[in-house]
Amino acid sequence: MLESNQWTCLKMGSLHATASAAALLALTTWCHPCRADVGDFAPCTDFFYSTWPPKGLPGVPICQRYLNKYRFATLYSRPRRAPWFSAYVFTPPAGRRPKEEWKYEPQLAYAKADGNMVPFPPGKVDQNVVESQAVQLDYINSSYTRGHLNPSLHHQDLQDKESTFTLTNVVPQKFGSNDGPWAWLEKHVSQLLTKHCNGDSYIVTGVIPYETDRWLKGDRVAVPEYLWSAYCCPNYNKSLPVNLANTFPTFAAIGRNDPNSTEEIVPINRGVRKEFWGYDVRLMPLATLEMYLQQRFGTVFTVFYNQCSEP
Ligand SMILES: *[C@@H]1O[C@H](CO)[C@@H](O)[C@H](O)[C@H]1NC(C)=O
Ligand SMILES: *[C@@H]1O[C@H](CO)[C@@H](O)[C@H](O)[C@H]1NC(C)=O
Ligand SMILES: *[C@@H]1O[C@H](CO)[C@@H](O)[C@H](O)[C@H]1NC(C)=O
C-alpha cells in the first residue's frame, strides 16, 4: 500500500500546469523522506550539467539505478504514469544493442524497495506495481511504440544500455516518429557530439503534453503531443564547420508525435516517405525550445544551468 505522504506526492504531481514555487518547495520537502531513490535527485546530480536538474515542473525524481549503479535520472509523473524527462551523460556508442528486457521500478509501489529497477516477471504483475506505473500490457495492441527518452544507442556500456529499457524512461511514441525523424535526430546528435564535443555532453529529453491530455488506449498512460531534446557540451572543439557554428555549446529540437497537430511549432515536410509523414523534427536554439515549453506548461522551464554557458 502507498503511505499517505506518498499520496501527497501524487496529488502535487498533478498540479503541473499551475505549480507555484511554493508548491514545488512543498513537493520536495514532502517527498524527501519517502524513500532513498525516489523523490530526490541528490544521489545522481552528476547526470546534469553543473549538477543542476532542470527547473519548473513538479514530479517524482527517480535516480535510475540498475545492478546497484546509478545510470541516469528521470523526472516521473505519477498521474501520467510516464516521465516528464530523462537526463543522462552521452557516451559515443559502441557495441551491440542489448536484448529488450523491459523493467519496472518497485520503489514506486513499495517504499522499502532498494531502488534498483527489475525485469517484469513472466506472469501476472503485482497490482500495486500496475497502479503505480505503466506496464507492458499498456503498450501491447496499442497504436504506439515504446519510445525511449534516454536511448540505448547513446551509451557505450552494455549495462548502461540495458538500463534504458525501463518503462519509466518511455513514452507512447508513434512508429513514424520512433523509427523515422526522431531516430534520425538521435543519430545526428550522436555523430555531432562524438565528432565535436571534447568533454562531457549532457542530454535532457522530454515531452510536451497535449493541451487537453490524451491517454494510451483511453486511460492510465498519458500520450505526448511532441518530444523535445537538448544537449549541452560545454567543452567543444572551437574549429567548427561554418554550418555548425551556432550549434555549440548547446542546441535543441522538438519532434512531432501526431501528424494531425497544427504546424506552428514544427512544420510538416511533405517530401518525406509516407510512413514518416507528419513526424518531423525541427532543430532550434535552446532559448526557442524553452519558449515553447513555457507556452505549453504555463510556467518557466529551464533545461540547463545558465543556458549551458561555458565555464
Ligand atoms: C492483442 O491482439 C491480438 C489480435 O487481435 C489478440 O489475439 C491478443 O489477445 C491481444 N493481446 C492483448 C494482450 O490484448
Ligand atoms: C578540432 O577540429 C579540427 C578540425 O576538424 C581538428 O584538426 C583538431 O584535431 C580538433 N581538435 C581537438 C582537440 O579535437
Ligand atoms: C488523425 O486524424 C485522423 C482523421 O481524423 C484519425 O483517423 C487519426 O487517428 C488521427 N491520428 C492521431 C495520431 O490522432
Q: Which key features would you list for this structure?
A:
Extracellular Endonuclease, Chain A; disordered N terminus; 8 helices; 311 residues; two-stranded antiparallel ribbon
The figure for the number of domains is 1
What is the overall shape? globular
How many E strands?
Answer: 11
Radius of gyration: 18 Å
Here the CATH topology equals Extracellular Endonuclease, Chain A
The CATH homologous superfamily is called: Extracellular Endonuclease, subunit A
CATH class: Alpha Beta
Largest β sheet strand count, sense and barrel closure: 7 strands, antiparallel
Number of helices: 8
Question: Could you name the ranges where pLDDT drops below 50 across 5 or more consecutive residues?
Answer: 1-36
Q: What's the SSE pattern?
A: HHEEEEEHHEHEHHEEEEH
- Report the sheet-strand fraction: 15-25%
**CATH architecture title:** 3-Layer(aba) Sandwich
* Percent in helix: 10-25%
Bound chemical compounds: 2-acetamido-2-deoxy-beta-D-glucopyranose
Main-sheet strand order equals 1-2-3-8-9-10-11
Distance between the termini: 46 Å
Overall pLDDT, averaged?
Answer: 89
Helix- and strand-based class? alpha+beta
Pfam families: Endonuclease_NS (PF01223)
Domain DNA/RNA non-specific endonuclease/pyrophosphatase/phosphodiesterase: 68-286
Signal peptide: 1-36
Domain ENPP1-3/EXOG-like endonuclease/phosphodiesterase: 69-283
Walkthrough of the structure:
With 311 residues, the protein is of the alpha+beta class. Helix content is 22%, strand content 24%. The chain has a seven-stranded antiparallel beta sheet with strand order 1-2-3-8-9-10-11, sandwiched between helices. A two-stranded antiparallel ribbon has the order 4-5. Strand 8 and strand 9 (222-232) form a beta hairpin. It is globular and about 55 Å long. The relative contact order is 0.14. The model is unreliable at 1-36 (pLDDT under 50). One 2-acetamido-2-deoxy-beta-D-glucopyranose binds next to loops.
